[in-house]
Structures are given as C-alpha cells and as structure tokens.
Protein: Uroporphyrinogen decarboxylase
Amino acid sequence: MSETNVDPRNSVLVKAARGEEVPYTPVWFMRQAGRSLPEYRKVREGVGMLESCRRPDLVTEITMQPVRRHHVDAAIFFSDIVVPLAAVGVDLDIVAGVGPVVAQPIRTRADLDRLPELTPDAVPDITESVKLLTAELGGTPLIGFAGAPFTLASYLVEGGPSKNHENTKALMYGDPELWNDLCARLAQISGAFLRVQAEAGASAVQLFDSWVGNLPLADYLRFVQPHSRQALAAVEGLDVPKIHFGVGTGELLSAMGEAGADVVGVDFRVDLDAARERTGGQYALQGNLDPALLFAPWEPLEAKVDEIVAAGRRAKGHIFNLGHGVLPSTDPDVITRVVARVHEISAR
Ligand code: CP3
Structure:
C-alpha cells in the first residue's frame, strides 16, 4: 500500500522486519520486476541485462514498475547478484534463459589474485539509481540486495549455473585456505555493495544465498556462515534490517539467522510454523508462497495465501513473499490480487 509522508525507515515493512506491531502484513515478491511484466519486456527491448542494471534511468523505471502496478509494500532494487563482480572487472555475461556465465572460472590462487576488492567509486551509478528511486518512492521502502559469498563463489568457480556444484565443493574440501580467501574477498565485495545501497537510502537489505541449500549444516557452519556474517556486518550501524534468504535451506534456517539476519527468508518447502519453531521464534520470517501456485485456480490459491498470513501472525514478524522468485510466465493480475488479499485479510 502506498505510505505517504512516512519515513521509509519507519514503514510497515521495516517495522515487521524489526518485529514491531504493524497495521497489516507487508508484502513484496522476489523478482517482482522482470519478465512477468509487459512494461518490463518493453523497456528491456534491445538492452542487455548487465547494461540495464548500470543505467539509472532504466533501473529506476524497472524498479518502480511493480510498485505502481501491484501496490507492494517495498521496491527491490533492480540489479543482479553478479553486477558487483562485473564492476570489479570479472569478465561475465548474463545469458537469457541460462543465467550468469563467467569467461574464466576461479579455481587457483592466481585466479583469486585477479579479483580485486569493491570500492564505492566503481559503482557511482548504483548510488545515483538508489537516490533517484528513494526520491520517487516516498514512504515506500527500497530493499537493497547482494549475493552471498557462497552463491557468488559457486558462479565464479563453476563458470556458470550448476546443479551439483561439484567444482565448488571440490575447491572447498581440496583447498580450504583458498576457499576461505575467495569467500572473504566475496564477503568484502558483497558487503560493500550492500553498504553503498544502504548509505544512498535503501531502508532494508537482503542477502541472497540462493544455492546454499545444497550444503549440509556442518559444511555451512564451517565454510559459509563466517563469510555471510562478514557480508551482513558491513551494514551494521546503518539501521537497516537484514533479510537473509536461500532456496532449500530448511536445515539451515537457524544457522542463517545466526549469521546476523533480522529476518530469515523461508522457501516454499518448509511450513512457516515449522520455520518459526526451527528458529526458536527469534527472527521475523519472510515467505513463503510457492511461485508455481500463482498458476492454480483462485480459490485454492487464496486459501493458501490466508494460511500463510495466519502462520505469519504467529511469528515475531512476517513479510509475505514467495518461496522463490516470480516465474516469467506468471499472470501479473494474479500477483496484484494476492497483494490485495494479503492486505485485506491481515488488516488489524
Ligand atoms: O525483482 C527483483 O527481484 C530484482 C531483481 C533481481 C534480478 N536478479 C534481476 C534479474 C534480483 C534480486 C536478482 C538476484 C539474482 N540473480 C539471484 C538471487 C535470487 C534468486 O533468484 O535466487 C540469482 C541466483 C541471480 C543470478 C541470475 N540472474 C539468474 C539465475 C538469472 C535468470 C536467468 C534467466 O534468464 O532465466 C539472472 C538474470 C536475471 N536477473 C533476470 C532478471 C530480471 C532475467 C534477465 C532478463 O530479464 O533479461
């Protein structure tokens, strides 16, 4: 809902993230900006994905599109997790229908030596985009984001998307020192990217560790958590709530919270009540409607939405979202209807 004359750092979404009382359950969707929207496909015509992420005019327009159309309670900064990697000089491209593809994978110490730290002067356009956006958004908060060290490492080590992450795990176990140095560098890059957005005016941040659900808890604790903690710590002191999300992370929810999150993102495989129990009720939760259910008939979909809102009210705080991103062929009108339903049923 549009919140006028409100400081976005005191908006419904930010309050829910902090576990404070809210007048209704706030809602946004991962990948709410993107191919499900005809107006997105139109402005992206003939413009490459990475280029569109570096043009403040396009970033602003694309980020605003779902806010205007769906009346969601937050905007998510239009960018990609590999943008900061490209900004420090990694030769990569985002291939439509595939994802990020890296020209020279990182597998040796010499490869790592070619990966510099991220300084804010490498991304002045990000600061500019955030400033344009916060001016246009008024009381609606902007969520900044970055990829977490593990997920970024997996793209860099594999050279592209991977199902089994075999090269990543081989490096982790084969040369733990190099793995840790790589992830420490990525935590710096990721943290700096979050900090640039928060300093420019983003009201919350989300750290995406999309593929970390491929690890057992023991490996997560040993090889990943310290680095994610480092990335999240980069915005400490800026008074922005930190959301931490991954796919298939049912076994890792507590550990991800302990990495320094205020809000734990839950995918659609874990019941929200179970997620609350697993995390000891310590965190606000975000989630977790299965994006595929947006293709189901309205009645059962609505019942599922209501069920998630009810479970969310038992949590310390709840931000309604999907359990992963909007699928490109989703009917945008269904998304608008879900937003309205969440607001209606959660009003208190
Ligand atoms: O609305 C939003 O959520 C903001 C935009 C956003 C994008 N990427 C835009 C994008 C966000 C938050 C991301 C993060 C991202 N990128 C993640 C983490 C979130 C997740 O989905 O788990 C990951 C793993 C990536 C890497 C990546 N980039 C993938 C897997 C893909 C999809 C490839 C494809 O074409 O299906 C991309 C490309 C991408 N990022 C698109 C968008 C809108 C599609 C490219 C296009 O529209 O041309």
In short: The longest helix spans residues 176-200. The chain has a mean pLDDT of 97.
